Amino acid sequence: MKFVMLTDTRMNNLRLILHQIWATLYVEYVVKNPLSPTEHTGGIGVANELFETALERFVSTTLT
Question: Distance between CA atoms of 6 and 30, rounded to whole angstroms?
Fold first, then answer.
C-alpha cells in the first residue's frame, strides 16, 4: 500500500504525516475491519466511509 499526497512545493517533508495516516487511520479503519476489503482491483481506492471521514478530519487539522 502506498499513500501519495499532492501538496504545495513549499511544504516540508510529509513522510511522517503519511506514516501516521497509514499507522493510525488505514490500519484502524481498513485493515482491522473484516468487512472492508484491503485490496481494490482497477484502482478504485479505499471505499471505507469511516476511513475517509477520519482522513479528512486528520488532514484538515494537521496541515492547516
Answer: 22
